[in-house]
């Protein structure tokens, strides 16, 4: 009788272990299958906003034949390119769960437009009606296509070009800036490593073994040779503040880290001192005159002299 009870207990324990193992394996497979949506979140990406100023949607030429478009937002009525008055351009790389036409990306374009900058914002494949499934490799390729358009089609000199990445787009910006020349780099809400964040959120799963899109910006940031401005909110509940600090610590000089208000989403709207500075409202068809330049403006201006431009000259650089 005792022996039978022990056999029954052993079978029960083995059955429970097997059941737990199968359930764990199934949950791991499910996590693997959901990786793309967890990282890129195309299903919730909205495309329902437009700038209040003029913009143009253009197709980006690609050697692989894939269709990709971008928004070009020129500042002022005069056509601009790098050979004409050394016009200053921002390559803006958006994050996940959004498109070039999402509200907060349009808010960023507005802030940059108010600073007198031209903006090109490439769309990623798999977003906003474009064919394809996004991956780390594909968004990097899409960002590079935007950069090459500015350099080869608009003839923008590298020292007149700022790479600006927000959220996941900041990780994309790090990889791009580690491979190309730029006047400056701005990283807002940047993750040091998406795989590390994933491991923190799912501590009981082998995230580091199964992830296909790790976005390890921390492994690439040291290769950047342009001045770096980091913007991160301590109220950020999406990309922890510690991630931004960790990436900053790994970055080379010259660099600056600025804590902003507003969390991950609203910082560009709520912390206007950093993003817009103390500026006069510009007259119609005139660029704004900065009395005290924003940190973003200063970074963009200082980039053209590799971080050596005084703050007062940085403000003056954006006067009409």
User: What can be said about the biggest beta sheet?
Assistant: 8 strands, mixed
Q: Total domains, how many?
A: 1
Strand order of the largest sheet: 1-2-4-3-5-6-7-8
Q: Can you identify the CATH superfamily?
A: Alpha/Beta hydrolase fold, catalytic domain
Distance between the termini: 95 Å
Name the assembly state: single chain
What distinguishing features does this structure have?
Rossmann fold, elongated, disordered C terminus
Write the layout of secondary structure elements.
Blueprint (H helix, E strand, L loop, with lengths): L1 H32 L1 H6 L15 E4 L9 E5 L15 E5 L9 H12 L3 E5 L13 H18 L7 E6 L1 H10 L6 E5 L5 H8 L5 H4 L17 E6 L7 H10 L4 E6 L6 H4 L1 H4 L2 E2 L10 E3 L2 H9 L7 H6 L4
Parallel strand pairs: 3-4, 3-5, 5-6, 6-7, 7-8
Antiparallel strand pairs: 1-2, 2-4, 9-10
Helix pairs in contact: 4-5
What does this structure look like?
This protein has 320 residues and is of the alpha/beta class. It has one domain (34-316): Rossmann fold. 38% of the residues lie in helices and 15% in strands. It contains twelve helices and ten strands. The strands form two sheets. An eight-stranded mixed β-sheet has the order 1-2-4-3-5-6-7-8, sandwiched between helices. A two-stranded antiparallel sheet has the order 9-10. α4 packs across α5. It is elongated, with a radius of gyration of 23 Å.
Summarize the entry for a quick read.
38% of the residues lie in helices and 15% in strands. With 320 residues, the chain is an alpha/beta fold. It has one domain: 3-Layer(aba) Sandwich (Rossmann fold).
């Amino acid at each position: 009788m005792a022996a039978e009870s022990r056999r029954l207990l052993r079978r029960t324990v083995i059955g429970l272990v097997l059941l737990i193992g199968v359930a764990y394996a199934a949950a791991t497979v499910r996590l693997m299958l959901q990786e793309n949506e967890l990282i890129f979140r195309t299903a919730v990406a909205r495309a329902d906003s437009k700038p209040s100023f003029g913009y143009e949607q253009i197709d980006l030429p690609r050697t692989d034949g894939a269709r990709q478009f971008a928004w070009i937002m020129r500042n002022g009525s005069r056509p601009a390119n790098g050979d004409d008055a050394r016009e200053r351009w921002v390559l803006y790389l958006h994050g996940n769960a959004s498109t070039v036409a999402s509200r907060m990306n349009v808010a960023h374009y507005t802030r940059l437009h108010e600073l007198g900058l031209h903006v090109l914002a490439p769309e990623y494949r798999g977003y906003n009606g474009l064919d394809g499934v996004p991956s780390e490799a594909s968004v990097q390729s899409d960002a590079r296509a935007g950069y090459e358009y500015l350099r080869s089609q608009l003839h923008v000199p590298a020292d007149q070009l700022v790479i600006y990445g927000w959220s996941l787009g900041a990780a994309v910006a790090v990889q791009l800036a580690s491979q190309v020349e730029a006047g400056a780099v701005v990283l807002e809400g940047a993750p040091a490593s998406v795989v590390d964040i994933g491991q923190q959120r799912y501590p009981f799963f082998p995230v580091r073994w199964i992830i296909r899109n790790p976005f390890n910006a921390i492994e690439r940031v040291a290769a950047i040779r342009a001045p770096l401005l980091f913007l991160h909110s301590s109220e950020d509940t999406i990309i922890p503040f510690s991630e931004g600090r960790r990436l900053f610590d790994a970055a080379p000089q010259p660099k600056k880290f600025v804590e902003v208000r507003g969390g991950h989403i609203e910082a560009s709207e709520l912390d206007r001192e950093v993003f817009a500075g103390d500026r006069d409202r510009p007259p119609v068809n005139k660029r704004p005159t900065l009395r005290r330049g924003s940190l973003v403006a200063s970074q963009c201006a200082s980039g053209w002299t590799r971080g050596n431009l005084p703050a007062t000259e940085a403000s003056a650089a954006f006067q009409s």
